[in-house]
Amino acid sequence: MEDTSKISKAKASVKGRDYLTLPLGRGVELRVARTTYRGAERIDIRTYIPYAGGTPGPTKKGVNVRLEDLPRLVDALQRAEAEAWAEGLLDECTDYVDHGIAPPE
User: Fold this and answer.
1) Edge to edge, what strands does the sheet with 16-25 contain?
2) How far apart are the C-alpha atoms of 8 and 76, rounded to whole Å?
3) pLDDT tens-digit profile of 43-82?
4) Nearest alpha-carbon partner for 66 in 38, 47, 94
């Protein structure tokens, strides 16, 4: 029987549209998805870990953002990206081109 004790019970039954799965190492992933939680559309950014059989499951480590807050979150992330780019902390090839993403101008 699969151990689901660490799976967030609220997320275990929620289906959504996945936008990003980012491997973090040792089978751990960061996932970004649009979900429905308690009848409201949300953006879920959550850590997933492998369980018995290798099936990844959500953990309690993450955030669930209201869709109406998404523009402010995206703006903050874009400002953080622009600063990191300006400081030379991001590489055009490995951080952008290799992932099919255009670097900031």
Assistant:
1) 16-25, 28-37, 40-50, 56-66
2) 27
3) 999 999 998 888 889 999 999 999 999 999 999 999 999 9
4) 38
Can you name the residues that pair with 65 across neighbouring β-strands?
43
pTM here is 0.75
- The answer to whether 2 and 52 have CB atoms below 8 angstroms apart is yes
Structure tokens at 61: 């480590």
CA–CA gap between residue 19 and residue 33 (Å, rounded) = 5
Q: How far is 75 from 81, CA to CA, in rounded Å?
A: 10
CA–CA separation, 88 vs 80, rounded Å? 12
- C-alpha distances (whole Å) from 94 to each of 53, 65, 90, 103 are 32, 29, 8, 11
Residue 48: CB atoms within 10 A of its CB come to 21
Which residues on neighbouring strands pair with residue 44, listed in sequence order? 33, 64
